[in-house]
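3.2 Worked example (two chains)
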Amino acid sequence: MKKLQLLIVLLLLGASTLFGGVYSIDASHTNVGFSVKHMMISTVNGEFQKFDGNFELDEKNNLVALKGEMDVNSINTNIAKRDAHLKSAEIFNAEQFPKVTFILDKVKGDKAYGKLTIKNTTKDVVLDYDFGGTITDPWGKQRAGLSLSGEIDRRDYDITWNQALEAGGVVVSEIVKLNVEIQGILKSEDEF
């Protein structure tokens, strides 16, 4: 009986440690951005303005889990006509595929390995990872920050629309740069 009680206590302590490091993404201090070369001479930047997710840090502040979901209909490049084209069936097809997701598999050194899903196509990606640290904000909440960046080939996700330029090259590069700045707030035990 004592072994069973000890096992229950250990499980409860383990759960409290596990959940003590789960952070909800703070949308007002997070940016899910991307950039792509346009007409081979300049860069267009954009972002997803609606997203949700959480991440988990262990007791040594190692990132052990991260899941994010972006709303394709919230894409913003500051040009309404371009945003409408990006949401159309030619590009993201937001009506049929309204979400983009990322799920972390592991972190090794300064690299984050995970699965990125766009248009129901899931590919392994490797992103640069930087942990910004943790703080207690002026209102007593524990916060943590991290950054993810890297490149993907949009053709891997069946995003193939393009036009050839008369002088050579294409309107939109196949390579898309990702730049995600995340800030999270530690969930309290009553949020689990």
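3.2.1 Second chain
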Amino acid sequence: MTDPGELFDLAGQVAIVTGSTRGLGRAIAEGFSRAGASVVVTSRKQDGCDAVAAEISKATGRDVIGLACHVGDWEAIPGVVEQIVKACGHIDILVNNAGINPTLQSVSTVELDLWRKIFSVNVEGTLRMSQCVAPVMRDGGGGSIVNIGSMEGYAATPISVAYGASKAALRHLTVSMANEWAPWGIRVNILSPGPFATEMITAFEAQQPGTMALLAEGPSQKRVADVSEIVGPALYLASKASSFVTGDDITVSGGMRK
């Protein structure tokens, strides 16, 4: 029987975490680094990527690369993946965490430009990044893709319709990826977080005071989670511990119901 400690060991693996200069992505990137992976930190701005990569490397003693990547730019993604392969030789793990929800929106008021902007990052960016990484994983013997969804993909709030719709679409896309790429040895799963104390949530609190307290009422635990609490579930899906898990959706929501 495999030592349980070995199941979660990412030593020798290369992991890309998109949108990882803050929030859930930042926590996942450092968590994977502490588990032994060589991590690629990506976000839109190179200086931010460099700063966070240096912070994580200092904290963990691991190799960490910072590389700017705007996942809403379909044409730019292949070149970024090529740079990573050139620098690292292989890619074993991809966490599609980058996502946006820039402002409150309802069905009655959401504008087309905002709708398309949210979908271009939350859905199309995940699709394109995965399309480019999957052949690299295949040629390396397989890998794990973890998409970061949201409980709003099950029950969108009246003030976040485009975001919720994008996360619902991401669930469907995850299953399609899992089915198509299983013969390549690639597992694809989705994590659906409930309320976490990210910069996105604090921004909404500033726009609409009381948002944080309202969100805390949703989970059975009656609280908003710390970003560090996403690391364990993400590590499970990225590692050998979940070797027979694909096409699945794991909620990290403190007891919220789908």
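3.3 Remarks
The chain has one domain: 7-196+231-249.
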